[in-house]
C-alpha cells in the first residue's frame, strides 16, 4: 500500500472578472483600431524600403560586378522582390482583417450600424497599396529577368 503524502489542493472559488465599462471598452477598441491602421502603413513603408534596397543592390551589381555575380542576381533579385511583395500584401490583409473586426465591435458597442465596415469604402487605401505592391513587384521582376 502506497501512502500519498502530497497535500490535497484546496479549490478556490472562481472569481468573475470585473465588468469593463463602456468607456474602457471604447478606449480599448479605438486604440486597437489605431494600432492595426499604423501596422498597415508600417508594412507599406517596409515594402518600399526593402524593394528599394533590392533594386539598388541589383543596379549596383549590374554596374560594378562581373558577369558571375550578375547571373546570380538575376535569380535572387526577382525571388526576393516577389517574396517581399507577397509578404507585404499578406501582412496588409491580415492587419486589415483585424482592424475590420475591431470596427465591427465599435459599431456594436456604440449601437451604430452605420459604422459597420463596408467594402470598398473602408478598404480602398489597402486595395490601392496592394495593387501598387503587385505592379511594382511585377515591374521589378520583369526588369531583373530581362
Give me a quick take on this structure:
The protein has 146 residues and is mainly alpha-helical.
Description:
- The protein is mainly alpha-helical and 146 residues long.
- It has one domain (38-145).
- The chain has 3 helices and no strands.
- Helix 2 (67-110) packs antiparallel against helix 3 (124-145).
- The chain is elongated, with a radius of gyration of 25 Å.
- It starts with 21 loop residues before the first helix and ends with a helix.
- 16% of the residues are buried.
Outline the biggest β-sheet.
none
Outline? elongated
- What string, H for helix and E for strand, traces the elements in order? HHH
Q: Please report the total strand number as a whole number.
A: 0
Alpha-carbon distance between the two ends? 81 Å
**Kindly state the mean pLDDT as a whole number?**
88
Residues in β-strands, percent: under 5%
How many helical stretches? 3
Report the structural category. mainly alpha
Radius of gyration: 25 Å
Sequence stretches where pLDDT stays below 50 over 5 or more residues: none
Number of domains: 1
Amino acid at each position: 500500500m502506497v501512502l500519498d503524502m502530497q497535500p490535497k489542493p484546496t479549490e478556490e472559488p472562481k472569481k468573475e472578472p470585473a465588468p469593463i465599462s463602456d468607456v474602457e471598452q471604447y478606449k480599448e477598441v479605438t486604440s486597437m483600431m489605431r494600432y492595426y491602421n499604423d501596422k498597415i502603413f508600417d508594412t507599406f513603408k517596409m515594402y518600399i524600403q526593402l524593394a528599394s534596397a533590392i533594386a539598388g543592390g541589383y543596379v549596383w551589381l549590374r554596374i560594378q560586378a562581373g558577369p558571375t555575380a550578375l547571373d546570380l542576381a538575376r535569380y535572387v533579385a526577382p525571388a526576393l522582390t516577389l517574396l517581399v511583395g507577397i509578404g507585404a500584401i499578406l501582412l496588409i490583409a491580415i492587419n486589415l482583417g483585424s482592424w475590420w473586426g475591431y470596427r465591427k465591435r465599435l459599431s456594436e458597442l456604440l449601437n451604430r450600424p452605420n459604422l459597420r465596415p463596408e467594402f470598398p469604402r473602408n478598404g480602398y487605401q489597402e486595395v490601392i497599396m496592394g495593387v501598387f505592391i503587385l505592379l511594382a513587384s511585377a515591374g521589378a521582376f520583369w526588369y531583373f529577368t530581362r
